[in-house]
Amino acid sequence: MLTKIFFVPNRLQKSSFSNLKLLNPLLLPQFALIRKPKSISFLTKENKKSFSSIMSSTSTNTISDLHENPQILKPRTVIKKVLAQEQAEGVGATVRRSIGRPELRNFDPFLLLDYATFSPPAGFPDHPHRGFETVTYVLEGNLAHEDFAGHKGTIGPGDLQWMTAGRGILHSEMPVGNTVNKGLQLWINLSSKDKMIEPNYQELQSKDINRVQKQGVDVRIIAGEAFGVRSPIYTRTPTMYLDFTMNPGAQLHQLIPEGWNAFVYIIDGEGVFGNEGSSPAWSHHTLVLSNGDGVRAWNKSEKPLRFLLIAGKPINEPVVQYGPFVMNTQEEIEQAFEDYQFCKNGFEKARFWKKRA
């Protein structure tokens, strides 16, 4: 279900990884790095029985071996197909945007999905966020991240950063080295009760992301569960984020909680989703799925198929977005701009942070 969304008319509302033409980039508030809350299952009671609950010192491969192929009673089908179109973003970067385009403006709880390609000196210098989460997943290259509170590091190939902007973050994301960088960034909305929480990070190196290889299917479990294996990432807005690679001839049955909005983003190759007799879809297409308890996929081509399967529980609240600020009302957006401009209510440290180029 598409959430009702109100956009303030402005040239800034296109920005993804960053919104760089927003006022004077000041700096941001102190946000505590809090301990990760205990991970909770994303499954409904009806589907929970289809997953193995064995999480001990046993390897993920052993767990997946014990996991039976789930029975999908209400298979989801493809109800909309959107090609991610290229557009300029940040400083000299190019992104392919799917969610966030006019054809798919908002898909509750998801606000935006960009596939970015860039190399130095292009990148995403200082920019703020408030009211949602960003999930940055690096495919190639290295991305240096730094924020106004002193949190910094490098996100490498296969690494993940799950950033809760909450009441406010000012940060930069710039490439390291002279290679081409490729990655994805997903924006996930926060409910009204969580929009002004303290910022927080969850970060996983590639080697620490749970991975299962079974019957021609290779999956990296970024959030949620697959083949009975669960990600340690805590999702404040309940979310499933899976990175699948399917060999030629492989097929997949993956449960998705009923009532959640779900989509597929094809990174490389072509595949058939929903009904086996459906026409194949190929790279950089976003496939919106109908409601149901799971999805089926087939790789009938002669090359590997790589795609993301992402699903989330709808928040069902009004969305007012102005560039990098996503709130529930026009008044809250105006307050966010005032807070950012005058370095208050979460943006206090913006005043003293030296701008990164």
UniProtKB/TrEMBL annotation:
Gene3D superfamilies tied to this protein: Jelly Rolls
Pirin C-terminal domain location: 241-345
Superkingdom of origin organism: Eukaryota
Subcellular compartments: Nucleus
Domain Pirin N-terminal: 94-188
Principal location listed in the UniProt entry: nucleus
Entries under Pfam families matching the protein: Pirin, Pirin_C
GO CC, alphabetical: nucleus
Keywords: Nucleus
UniProt family annotation: Belongs to the pirin family.
Annotated protein name in UniProt: Pirin-like protein
Species of origin: Dendrobium nobile (Orchid)
